[in-house]
Amino acid sequence: MNQITKLDRLVHEPLRFAIVNALTVSRSLTFNDLKRLTQATDGNLSVQSRRLEEGGYIKCSKSFEGRITKTKYKLTAKGTRAVDNYFIQLETLVSSHRLNAIGRTVKKGIVESTKL
Question: Which of 2, 33, 99, 112 is the S-S candidate for 29 at Cβ 3.0 to 4.6 Å?
Answer without folding.
Answer: 33
